[in-house]
Amino acid sequence: MKKNLHFGFIIIILFAMAQWAYTQMPAAITIDPPNATGWDELTLTLDANKACVPDGKQSIIGQSDIRMHSAAFLYNNIENWGSAWGSYGVDYDAKPKEEGFDLPRLTDNGDGTYSITFTPGKFYGVEEGSTIIGITAVFNAGSWDFEAKDNAADGCGDFYIPLSYDPPTPALKFTLDLTYQEELGNFDRTTGKAYVIVNDTEYEMDQLLIGIVPDARYEKLLTEADDGITAGTSYSYKFKMDDTEETVERDPVVAGNYQISLTHFFNDVGKPVADVQFILDMRYAAREGLFVPETDHVDIAGSLNGWDGTDYHLTDDNGDTIYEILVEEMELLTIVEYKYRINGSWDDDKSEFPGGGPNRHATVIEGGREAKSVWNNTIPGMVPVTLSVNMNNEIAKGTFVARENYVDVAGSMNGWGGDWNDELYDLGGDGIYVTIPAAFAPVGGEGDTMQYKFRIDSSWDDDKSEFPGGGPNRKYVVLDTVGGYVNEVEMVWFNDIELGINDQPIPFKEISFYPNPVTDIMYIENKVEMQMIMITNILGQEVVRLALENRRTYEYNASELVRGLYILSVYGKQGYRGAAKFIKN
Fold first, then answer.
1. Domain ranges of the chain
2. Do 527 and 552 contact (CB within 8 A), yes or no?
């Protein structure tokens, strides 16, 4: 299952050029008002007395929890009306997009009829400007043991509920996202302007809002009536940010008898992104009766989706009770906080680490990664173990960069990282990483001792794992927690190498900077083309990040830095180039 959090460079909504044939309202359905569109609030009423009950099912009449399993049907799929399901769905056990709904539940009118009042476009989360021609639906009683379908002429089938609509006309909607340009210092949303140039005509774009706050995204809608957009005509276009025009070459767009929406970053340069494959082992939860694979589902809720996992169900594709979801195009330098839930519930017996327990953490890194877990970090016979490692020496060397890298622990307790990840988290911003939530291991462990090592980015490469080349493992005897004992291992330094007070600056390869110490201007020179520089303090906290465009020299104004020791990291076209310490006077 895939979820895309980051909009692609082009999203085109194609509305098929077909004529709408009148469809009769199903006998068991009424809509009030009768001429409601997909963007009007309407009341849908189901008369279960006139509905069909499929073979092997029971009637919903007399049941107390009637729900609608449904989807919005768009004009772009009009040729499949009557034979296919809609495009934007809300399952009977899922939360609708419209505010005010926990579930798509109908009200019992007491006479075998059931009603629900909603606005389809909002309810299903349809993109604004889309033309909704109807709703596809099936009704049940909170489970598929009870069902109500359309008693149609061709048999017992899904409901196809037509709505009123106006056939769309030619239109082009342009959206420009300047968020990343603002982060790079190239744009200011409070004073800047955005434009789209279409066939050599320049149009100022409208600034979008987040609530009442101006956003760094801009939009312009060109229509047939206002701007002469004509179906079948080819339109060239590019964007302009203040006085700077794009240099990227864009393919022209051919208008049709529908709205085409195009969303871009300036010059198609957006925030760097990567995918994260979340993997959850539910075998032990199923074995203990906490999870029933045949009837239950599991989702992920967290900072990646506003703590709403409705549309983020994990799937078990091979029946091994290990569930997965791929979340695509997440921004780099992001630490995702999350928890898993059973059946979308925050009840203590259905969600991980209840009662205010810790969140999981997964750092999004270049190239993507897996984040593997066991439900609630709980396996019978295993107990929590808190581990911590000081990464400040790696930070000073530049071999570990907060948010660009993560640290985990692999050992006998988790198949040396093959069974699941125990990622550590820098809660205090001091370069000391702790297992939050705690790792877990069998009492006594392997050979009476838990053995383990810390790693960077889950890698066994010599420069990313402790004591490489067959070096010794760390060891700890895990004790039973009965009676309140807490397994908390003393903090260690990564590779057991502490940061020295008088460490010499690490020389760059083909890179130099001066003066050091610095008071105001620092001059950075290199023989390779710099892509980015980053400055962190001695605690590993990022202070400055500047994206550069293939610069060989750069003057950095360090006057705003407070006095102290810092790490300067320089990145070239091939990635990391080097890091060195400097002192700000």
1. 29-162, 171-268, 379-500, 511-584
2. yes
